[in-house]
Amino acid sequence: MLHKESAELLDIQAASLQSYVRSSEKQKMLYKRTLFVVSISQIFGGAGLAAGVTVGALLAQQMLGTDAYAGLPSALLTLGSAGAALFVGRLSQLFGRRIGLTAGFMIGGLGAIGVIMAAIINSVFLLFTSLLVYGAGSATNLQARYAGTDLASNKQRATAISIAMVFTTFGAVAGPNLVNVMGNFALSIGVPSLAGPFILGAAAYILAGVVLFIMLRPDPFVIARMIEATKQESNNKDYSATTEHTQNKRGIIVGAAIMILTQIVMVAIMTMTPVHMRHHGHGLGAVGFVIGFHIGAMYLPSLVTGILVDKLGRTAMAIAAGTTLLLAGLIAAFSPGDSMVLLVIALCLLGLGWNFGLISGTALIVDSTDISIRAKTQGTVDVLIALSGAAGGALSGIIVASSSYPTLSFVGAILSLLLVPVVIWSRRGKK
Predict the structure, then answer these.
(1) Which fold would CATH assign to domain 29-225+246-427?
(2) What CA–CA distance (Å, rounded) separates 143 from 50?
(3) Rounded CA gap, 97 and 103, in Å?
(4) Fewer CB within a 10 Å sphere, N or C end of the chain?
(5) How far apart are CA 225 and CA 371, in angstroms?
(6) Under 8 Å CB-to-CB from 74, ≥6 apart: which residues?
(7) What is the dihedral of CA 104, 107, 108, 114, to 10 degrees?
(8) Distance CA 203, CA 44 (A)
(9) Among 275, 300, 290, which Cα is nearest to 46's?
(10) What's the confidence (pLDDT) of residue 133?
(11) Which residues, in sequence order, are CB contacts of 126 under 8 Å at separation 6+?
(12) Is the peptide bond before 218 cis (omega within 30 degrees of 0)?
């Protein structure tokens, strides 16, 4: 009897999903609902992301007693996010966005709890291990941008990506500006003040996972896969696989290269800015203020960026990314260390350049992949982005310790120019 009831329930669920495949109106409604749900989760995810960015380097500096390894938290966080990106991508490909994204956020929340415990018992080993796990949250936060594109048309994709990223701003800007509040709260319950933001991070990531698990139904990726399967069944034409594969391969390479270069430059300069500021007498509140502006610039312009990417094209905005990052690096390199205004300008341009690169590169990846391998490919590309961020974070501390923050910023400015030949190569051979 129970088996019969379960079979009937499965039939009802299958019929419900098929109704989305048959109705374009229901697909549009689900597309809008997906953007709404993802946007809510991104508010929490942004707050979780901001915690590690703001005080991770300072916590390591305090526990290790040296600046040389202050870039390690960022490196470990992004290294952890690399493994998590692959895991979340594969999980999403198999079971849909809902399961993949929920799992990633929950694991990130556990990592934040581990960082808090490491600060309490003063364990560097536990700190570094927990930061690896905590990286799952940032990887998931980044991969959530793909969920809105599953049911989007070609002309909506960059805009869909940008809507999800805009809502990340609310949590991402609030996080750094709650550094002092969370620090005082942490002290009141017997936890070191620098671990305070990770309390916020743990709660935020877990809440993001709960929102997605409860509300992301039906799963947009599952529906998109069913729509594609239906199209293939009804249209059995033999397309030229070779041409399509060549075009897709180039699009994937270019999209990944754009995001990798922007990630290296952004992470390297951002990671060492708090340490640079503390050396010039700026307090923790000032650090949170500058990083808050930076993260705001990373996400808030997204809606406009998405429209520009859809209207002006992916490659035009990739060039804009390189130019903006060049200006950011030069201003950071030649600004006096005690100038809050110039630091804010430099970090805002740094965030904006990253924003241009991420949205244009992401749109290229979505354009160049088939639904049957899309989530898996997206996860693989995000692994490369995370690894490049890890390299940027690790090398940033070494460069600053052996030379200076201005040197690091200048190197980042020069590196951003590599986006130009990447874009030229992407246009070569096109008719």
Answers:
(1) Growth Hormone; Chain: A; (1.20.1250)
(2) 16
(3) 10
(4) C
(5) 6
(6) 52, 53, 56, 57, 267, 270, 271, 389, 390, 392, 393, 394, 396
(7) -170
(8) 8
(9) 300
(10) 93
(11) 114, 117, 118
(12) yes
In whole angstroms, how far apart are CA 313 and each of 111, 284, 350, 376? 38, 40, 21, 25
Tokens 């870039």 belong to which residue?
A: 71
> What is residue 9's predicted lDDT score, i.e. its pLDDT?
42
Alpha-carbon span 204 to 216, nearest angstrom: 17
Report how far residue 33's alpha carbon sits from residue 16's, in angstroms, rounded to the nearest whole number: 16
Distance between CA atoms of residues 385 and 259, nearest Å: 6
Q: How far is CA 284 from CA 59, 116, 157, 198, in A?
A: 12, 18, 38, 15
pTM: 0.77
Judge whether 271 and 277 are in contact, CB under 8 Å. Answer: no
Residues of the chain with pLDDT under 70: 1-15, 51-54, 66-71, 234-247, 427-431
> Is 321 within 8 Å of 359 (Cβ atoms)?
no
pLDDT of residue 350: 96
Q: Cα separation of 134 and 104, whole Å?
A: 10
Sequence spans of domains, the chain:
29-225+246-427
Q: Of the candidates 346, 352, 344, which has an alpha carbon nearest to the alpha carbon of residue 332?
A: 346
Q: Quick count: other Cβ atoms within 10 Å of Cβ 271? A: 30
User: 103: which 2 tokens?
Assistant: 């799992």
Alpha-carbon distances, residue 57 vs 7, 275, 380 (angstroms): 53, 7, 27
